[in-house]
Amino acid sequence: MSGTVERLSTHVLDTVRGRPAAGIPAVLEGVGPDGSVRVLGHGSTDTDGRVGRLNRDPLPAGEYRIVLSTGGYFAAEHGSVFFPTIAVQVLLDGAREHYHVPVLVSTYSYSTYLGS
After folding, report:
1. Which of 32, 42, 46, 84 makes an SS bond possible with 36, Cβ 3.0 to 4.6 Å?
2. Is 11 assigned a ligand-binding role in the annotation?
3. pTM higher than 0.90, yes or no?
């Protein structure tokens, strides 16, 4: 199935502090078959660590990358930066109208998954 994706959202949680990570800039990039990249939207995590909608317009099925600029957050909250940027690349098949990609971060690791 390859429908249109109306909304792509993310949620950043600081697992060291046990709370949402606020103020992290996020950029949504579309990745072309040739590896070319174009910016499709952006936002910043709110006090609950969420960007409710990264895309400005509906997205066709395809490959996308969420780029989180985490350096400022880690420097301020943890006094140390190992991952100044976290990029999560996903292939959206268009089977859902909304895809949610949470990212769990700590000073020296991160993980992500397909949320609901």
Report:
1. 32
2. yes
3. yes
